[in-house]
Design a protein that fits this description.
It contains one helix and five strands, in the order E-H-E-E-E-E. By secondary structure, it is mainly β. Strands 4-3-2-1-5 form a five-stranded antiparallel beta sheet, with no helix packed on it. The radius of gyration is 16 Å and the shape is elongated.
Length: about 90
């Protein structure tokens, strides 16, 4: 299920788990078979704290302090079209 238009029922600092598919670039010479095989590294699970979302992105932080302003670290902006599941 793509979560681009699904309602995200989270509040600031709520724990969140996001299963999503990431883009992947591999460089160097390889066989066509190897090049056309999608590596496992594209399947990602991110756990953190919900910050916000827009029509295009879900924003998650690895760390959240007590204050709302200037108190988050390890921020991810995950394209909603790449999200498969949110818990």
């Amino acid at each position: 299920m793509i979560v681009r238009t699904a309602k995200i029922d989270k509040q600031f600092r709520d724990p969140i788990t996001v299963e999503w598919i990431d883009a992947c670039e591999r460089s160097g010479w390889m066989t066509v078979e190897s090049a056309t095989t999608v590596p496992d590294e594209v399947y990602v699970t991110t756990r953190g704290f919900y910050l916000t979302h827009s029509k295009e992105f879900l924003t998650v932080a690895a760390s959240v302090g007590k204050a709302k302003a200037n108190d988050v670290g390890g921020v991810w902006h995950i394209p909603r079209a790449w999200i498969k599941k949110i818990k």
